[in-house]
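Box 3.1 A note on notation
Throughout this textbook, protein chains are presented in two layers. The first layer is the amino acid sequence; the second is a C-alpha cell string describing backbone geometry. Keep the layers aligned when reading.
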Amino acid sequence: MRVDADDFARPCGDGKMHHEIKEILIEPGAVNALEEAMSEGFLKEYISPLLICDTNTCKATEKLMEDIFDRCQVLVLDADDLQADQHAIEIVENYMDEDIDLILAVGSGTVHDISRYVAFQYKIPFISVPTAASAEGFVSTEAEMVWNGQKKMIAAEAPIAVYADTDIFANAPTELNLSGAIRVNSSDTYLTERKISETQIKEGDPDTCEKLMYALLRSGVAGQAEGERL
C-alpha cells in the first residue's frame, strides 16, 4: 500500500519541522521502488549514501537489495549485543566518509535509532527500510539511546521516506513481529478498527503483517504527539 505521507508530517518537540516525509510504501517489492527512486527519482540527487545494517539484517536483505548495496557505502554492525549507544555512534562516525549525504537504515529499532541520531547530528536525511514489524519508532523524531549507561530519548531525525518491503519484514523472526503485534494490541491509541491477529502474525500472513506495519507507524506518531502535549 502507498500511504499518504501527509498523515505522518508533524513538528518535532521544539516546534520545527524535520525533513519532510515524502513517501511511505508498505508492500511486496518496496525496495525495488527505493532503487528506482535512487536511480532516477527524487533520491537521485544523493550521490554518496551510507547504508547501515547489522549482521542479521544484512543477511536478510542483501540479495533482495543487491543493487542498492552496490551503490552505497555499507556499514555492517555486529548484531551481538548491539545497542544504540556511544560506542555504536563512534563506529559509524569513524566509518562514514565526509561526503555522506544520505543514510539508509536497514534494520529494526536499534539500527534505526543509531541512524536517526547520526542523521540529526550531521543534518543529513535518512531512509527507513524496516526489516521487522517490531517497533513503533520508524518515523520518530527521537532516538532511544543508552547514554552513559542510562536509557534516554534524544532528539533525532525522522526519515524522508519509508520502504517497508513485505517480502522482507513478513519473513522476519516470528518473535519480532509478534512483539510488534502485542505492542499494537495493548496500545491505548486504538488506531486500528480491529486488533491485529497474533495467530496470523505467527503464520507470517503478508496482509496481516502489512496491517501491523501500518499500525506501528501510526501508533508511533500518535504516541509521540501525545507525549509532546503532556
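The longest strand covers residues 49-54. Strands lie at 2-3, 23-27, 49-54, 73-77, 102-107, 126-130, 142-147, 150-155, 161-165.
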